[in-house]
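User: Please predict the structure of the protein below. I'd like the answer in structure-token form so I can feed it into my own downstream comparison script.

Assistant: Understood. Taking the following sequence of 88 residues as input:
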Amino acid sequence: MIKVEIYTSTYCAYCYAAKALFEKKGVEYTEVNLSHDHELRIKLVEKHNWRTVPMIVINETLIGGYEQLVELERRGKLDQLLSIETQG
């Protein structure tokens, strides 16, 4: 089963937009708000080498932030990624 995680902060318009795109596609995700968890944020930055939110992870693989998500969608690769991940 696919596992989508979106690491966010409270006042992040790109975080809301990323969640809206997944909701529009009917994709369930887990949101983790990093606004008050500085230690987790540091661990994620070290693990994924990514500093900004949203930090979007699909099955333990960082795909990037909102811009990368939209680029995958624009190129038709997001649906591919989501269907490949659900089949595996």
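That's the full token string. The CA atoms of residues 47 and 62 lie 10 Å apart.
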